[in-house]
Design goal:
Helices cover 35% and strands 27% of the residues. The protein has helices at 47-54, 77-87, 103-113, 120-129, 145-157, 175-192, 203-208, and strands at residues 3-14, 21-32, 36-40, 62-67, 70-71, 88-91, 163-167, 195-199, 211-216, 219-220. The longest helix has 18 residues, at 175-192. The structure holds adenosine-5'-triphosphate (ATP) and magnesium ion. Adenosine-5'-triphosphate binds at residues 14, 21, 23, 41, 43-49, 93.
Length: 221
């Protein structure tokens, strides 16, 4: 009933008709508004593609995708970014921090994109919670991979999104740090009735989720 993400027979192809590659083949699934779901599967199976579609950063070739009940397939770029802004926090596989902004400024930028101002203290608190109190004013290039990842997660959470899409959020962390990062993500989702969709290669993390979606060759198995 209260599905936050609903895929119905969604296909995604790249290339033109002559050399079309079907990356996702008519997949259907639904994620409830407080569910924590992991997406697992081999490299190249289509996991990141699902994240890109759910966030409206890629257009489905066929099918229907609903975010909190609203169809997003066929929306214009401006409408998609509105849906994203209102509903979704994304943690990308390769962070995409803005290189010439400090850790704190990267998080603040996310607030400003949502027309939220004067929340510097909140951003500082979140970064502190993530163990980055001494790194707030550093540029991404001055941070370790794990620290950059924590900034990227803080940036996704600062707007209190109802849906978090995270592509390998612990890919660059050692096992102790990755456990504590996952604890933070799980705490947040439980506290705020948020759904979390997390791509992971780590089976111990996948097992902690409410449900596992396994994808192989662009299909759910
Ligand atoms: N822009 C693109 N143009 C053409 N093919 C693409 C494009 N992006 C992804 N693909 C192809 O789509 C398939 C699925 O890619 P995707 O990134 O979703 O895989 P993944 O499951 O996330 O893999 P990994 O675990 O390595 O991150 C791959 O075969 C990839 O080469
Ligand atoms: Mg990927």
């Amino acid at each position: 009933m209260n599905a936050s993400i609903q895929f119905n027979n969604v296909s995604l192809s790249y290339g033109d008709i002559a050399d079309e590659v079907e990356v996702l083949k008519s997949i259907s699934f639904s994620i409830d508004s407080n569910e924590v779901v992991s997406i697992v599967g081999p490299s190249g199976s289509g996991k990141t593609s699902i994240i890109m579609l759910a966030s409206g950063l890629e257009n489905a070739t066929k099918g229907s995708i609903k975010i909190n009940g609203d169809e997003i397939v066929g929306l214009k770029e401006k409408e998609l970014s509105e849906v994203r802004r209102k509903n979704i926090g994304i943690v990308f596989q390769s962070f995409y921090l803005i290189p010439n902004l400090t850790a704190l400024e990267n998080v603040l930028l996310s607030l400003e994109a949502n027309q939220q101002y004067g929340l510097e203290k909140d951003a500082e608190n979140l970064l502190t919670e993530f163990g980055l109190s001494h790194r707030m004013h550093h540029l991404p290039s001055e941070l370790s991979g794990g620290e950059q990842q924590r900034v990227a997660i803080a940036r996704a959470l600062i707007n209190k999104p109802k849906i978090i899409l995270a592509d390998e959020p612990t890919g660059n962390l050692d096992s102790a740090n990755s456990e504590s990062m996952i604890d933070l993500l799980f705490d947040y989702t439980k506290k705020s009735n948020t759904s979390l969709v997390m791509v992971t290669h780590d089976s111990s993390i996948a097992k902690r989720c409410d449900r596992i979606i396994e994808i192989r060759d662009g299909q759910i198995v």
